[in-house]
Amino acid sequence: MIKSQDSQNLYCKNLSVGYTNNGNKKIILEDINLSLKKGNFISLVGINGSGKSTLLRTLAGLQKALEGEVYLDKRKITAIDPVQRSKTLSLVLTNQQISKNLTVLELVALGRQPYTNWLGTLTDSDKEHILEAIRATELENFKNTSCFELSDGQFQRALIARALAQNTEIILLDEPTTHLDLHHKASIFLLLKKIAHTHNKLILSTTHDIEFVLSLCDQMIVIKGKTCITDTPDNLIQSGVFENLFPDNTIGFNTQSKQFFIR
Ligand SMILES: Nc1ncnc2c1ncn2[C@@H]1O[C@H](COP(=O)(O)OP(=O)(O)OP(=O)(O)O)[C@@H](O)[C@H]1O
Q1: Cβ(153)–Cβ(137) under 8 Å?
Q2: So what's the ipTM on this one?
Q3: Cα–Cα distance, 5 to 100 (Å, whole number)
Q4: 1-88+168-263, what's its fold?
Q5: Which of 193, 206, 261, 263 has the highest count of CB atoms within 10 angstroms of its CB?
Q6: Which mutation among 15, 27, 28 tests ligand 1's pocket best, with the greatest number of atoms within 8 A of CB?
């Protein structure tokens, strides 16, 4: 069941996302209507090149919408100044350029940047948030480890810890489980679900691991053609949306086992 909260929602109506090249609009997705609420773990899925990252960046306010507006807690996201926005919404991008020479503690401390003074001095409260984020992601034993010494799964957890230290109500993640084995994929998704439920946050993650999130997330956004459909996983399964998600009819979906198969 999708939890419904009044505040800190991410909302858009008739949104079009895409790119403008020499004045020409390239629409990737259009007519998108979403109302995403705190306390939910939400997955955004779709085939390669369907527009997941483009939509995520637009919802985060990093990319201008071609039509419509994104509202963060009833305010236009583009009208919120960057420092205020970074106290409400954090973004975890896997391919972001980050110095892996930083220790886990130093990386997670970067999450406090919106709150520190220009010298970057950490207060006791900042330190408490950092340690709490490290505890929540079970990285206590790696606090002083350099990021280049971490496995991909541990590094992914450190990036999530940085977003937790940022203490935002909304966390958006772009493919946080790429390159991870099944065990580590499961542990990241379970962690995200736990954070959404126990800390009452809105967590929206793009993923290709559809079968995993079908059994874990509260709400899914499925990109279909140039728009998207959103509902609970069970309602989406019943609607038959996964049966022809992939092109060329090569992949089918078994509604009983909730698994894809090759036709
Ligand atoms: N800077 C850009 N200018 C023009 N078109 C772009 C740009 N970046 C991406 N695109 C196009 O937008 C479409 C959606 O890309 P996007 O990266 O959002 O898809 P995706 O669903 O995240 O893909 P994947 O699953 O492969 O990561 C693609 O057709 C891509 O070629």
Answers
A1: no
A2: 0.98
A3: 38
A4: Rossmann fold (3.40.50)
A5: 206
A6: 28
